[in-house]
Amino acid sequence: MSQNPKEQQEILDKLGIEQLNPMQIEAQEAINSNPNVVLISPTGTGKTLAFLLPIINNLDRKSHAVQVLILVPSRELAIQIDQVIREMGAGFKTNAVYGGRAFSKDKLELLHNPAILIGTPGRIAAHFRRATFLTNQIETLIIDEFDKSLEIGFEPEMKEILLGLTNLKKRILTSATQEIEIPKFVGLEKPTLIRFANEGSSKLKIKIIISPTNSKLETLVETLHFLGNQPGIIFCNYKDSVQRVSDLLSKNKIQHGCFHGDMEQKDRERVLLKFRNGTHQVIVATDLAARGLDIPELKFIIHFELPFKSQEFTHRNGRTARMKSDGTAYVLRWEREELPDFISSSEIENITSKPIKEILKWQTLFISGGRKDKISKGDIAGLFLKQGNLKIDELGIIELKLDCAFVAVPTEKADKLIKELNNSKLKRKKVRITLI
Fold first, then answer.
1. Cβ burial, residue 91 (10 Å; 0-12/13-18/19+)
2. Does the pLDDT at position 68 exceed 90?
3. For residue 367, what is the domain's CATH number?
4. Residues 324-351: tens digit of each pLDDT
5. Which residue segment(s) compose the domain that 427 sits in?
6. What is the pLDDT of residues 302-329, one digit of tens each?
7. Is there a contact between 296 and 415 (Cβ–Cβ < 8 Å)?
8. Among 325, 271, 316, 266, which Cα is nearest to 290's?
9. Over the chain, what is the mean pLDDT?
């Protein structure tokens, strides 16, 4: 069953995509024609859309059961895929479930079964045990970034889930890692392998920046001034290092967010949100941010601490030079430090520190109403443009969630907007507006 070209183009138009890349075209054909597919392609090449288009095309609109289960290694990736499906506007209900939020909230949202359910293995396994929904009509299983799920210890839950899926007809595994071992418990028989080794990564440049000190902190600040106002991620190996770098950036008045596994899920989501809307230009992160994050194109990443393995190096670099864009990975190297064998670049970047130019700075406002209150992005835009008297170029990115929303506004106008618009009515709901 092939996708109606007109319907597919409508979806691509909604996503702002002109055409599919070669990997997505080949993956779509393979998924439509084969019961078992393994898709291997670097981070940022569009694997999510590659499997969603054919899967959505084959859903039964008359069914009221869960038809597709997507397992992911992280909460952020679950949220990202859920958002992509909503933006596709194909008319199918979708839900994302994951640890870090109330189980009761999951149950409430799943009272009406989604056609597509996305979740982390731990949370999905918990729902299977409690029989929150029927599983006998789930015919398609997608394990996205399956090697990452195995790496962080989800194998027991994944085995448990597979045992509970008695009517599977299609299995799809994806990974950004080229050297992978397909787990036997998934039950893949003669899978079709789609492998794109270099798709989207050819424009990546790797450059070395030499630090005269072992701490590399002063060199990091000089590097950020050299790069100017561009979005990027600084990678560290440990959460303590993230905090040390964060303290340094705060001292130098460089706006940034932090991202690591010990943070509350809500705080991690808000860091990413602020990064997407420009409140922060820089994130300081552990390797948790190397895969599966819903963030815009990055112009650079910085290896503040050298990764331990070649795979970590590859996944970190995959955050920049995505699709057909260019980008640079900077390796901060103490002058007496030996580079691991997998970092072969010898190109040295001689940085010249310079003040960061002032640009329009944003703050993020929280709105206590969302989709469940029938509030739309247009409603929020109207409130800020008409009652808040913002100019169109002063209204930043609006992100609409189920029970709340976030909007970016100029820093100098944030307090005034809160004072004027707090307790305004959107649709029939009086909403609170606060700074986050």
1. exposed
2. yes
3. 3.30.70.330
4. 567 899 999 998 888 888 887 668 888 8
5. 362-435
6. 999 999 888 888 888 878 866 556 789 9
7. no
8. 316
9. 89
Q: Do 215 and 271 have their domain in common?
A: yes
- Residues 392, 318 share a domain: no
| Terminal CA-CA length for the chain | 47
342: in domain:
no
**Residue that the structure tokens 């992100």 belong to:** 399
Residues 100 and 236 in one domain: no
Are residues 217 and 87 part of one domain?
no
What sign for the dihedral angle of Cα 76, 223, 256, 365? Answer: negative
pLDDT tens per residue, range 108-134: 999 999 999 999 999 999 999 999 999
For residues 320 and 234, the answer to whether their CB atoms sit within 8 Å is no
201 pLDDT more than 50: no
Give the residue from 401, 383, 396 showing the smallest Cα distance to 280: 396
Amino acid making up residue 264: E
Maximum Cα–Cα distance across the chain: 66
Instruction: Let me know whether 271 and 395 are in one domain.
Output: no
Cα distance between residue 199 and residue 315, in whole Å? 14
327 inside domain: yes
The helix or strand, by DSSP H or E, that contains position 54, with its residue range, turns out to be: helix 47-57
Rounded-to-integer distance, Cα 135 and Cα 147, Å: 24
Global pTM value: 0.71
Please tell me which residue, 67 or 291, carries the higher pLDDT value. 67
Contact yes or no for 52/65 (Cβ under 8 A): no
- The reply to whether 18 and 117 lie within a common domain is yes
